[in-house]
């Protein structure tokens, strides 16, 4: 299973716990599943001829950005940080009601998996704007992106004026219901808090996150949680599956907009099974096909 965006990181049968005291200037911490690519790698260009000799040119953009980050504030305890941002699956998903505010009430068992993105944060000299880049075309790089929304939210809540260069190495497919954007937002909140010396508690980060998204709160859990409300009410539970359980994810080429899915959703076509009954059965007997109920998947 995978890492959490909070201080609890579940990955490959290990739990990594990090406090704000474990970071120092220029520390580059990477939380990732085995087999993923570290962000800090030199990129090599092809050989070029120079005076009949072969000359290898090595371009290392990360090193240049790291030097710039170190120069932003030489007294800063932390100038850059690389974090793993896991996605999640819904072991079951019950939609129980439609609310007056237009959202739906749900009851779901969320669980992180070891598929995730890698996000690199570096302090920026700017005091007015974050700069976001990514390896995937079509991902918004402005305030529509949940990473930028999360950083703006943190500055609003704390009064801190840190701005960042951010690179998102995206592996989680978009429009797949895997919560990749929500995880990125939780990771950004946690990172901003580390750069600020841990001004906010994780409980505060969790509470704030519901202002910009419903699923973000889950990524401050321990990795498995029973989520209700819009998804922002999170109750940690012991993992109902072995952490080394093999899993196959199938993602069609088509993406599904969450807003569009809920717009077409029909409450009269949902399962009538009590979600607490599902949770009790999973806790007692483990996961089986009959408890993997998805009201969204069976409704459209």
**How many strands in all?**
12
Task: Write the CATH architecture name of the domain at 78-243 and 255-285.
Answer: 2-Layer Sandwich
Q: How would you state the average pLDDT, rounded?
A: 76
First-to-last CA distance: 30 Å
CATH class term of the domain at 78-243 and 255-285:
Alpha Beta
Briefly note the structural class of the backbone: alpha+beta
The largest sheet, given as strand count, sense and whether it forms a barrel, is: 6 strands, mixed
Number of helices: 6
Multimeric status of the protein: single chain
Q: Which outline best applies?
A: globular
Unreliable residue stretches:
1-59
CATH topology of the domain at 78-243 and 255-285: Ribosomal Protein S5, domain 2
What is the N-to-C order of secondary-structure elements (H for helix, E for strand)?
EEEEEEHEEEHEHHEEHH
Radius of gyration: 21 Å
Strand content: 25-35%
Helical fraction equals: 10-25%
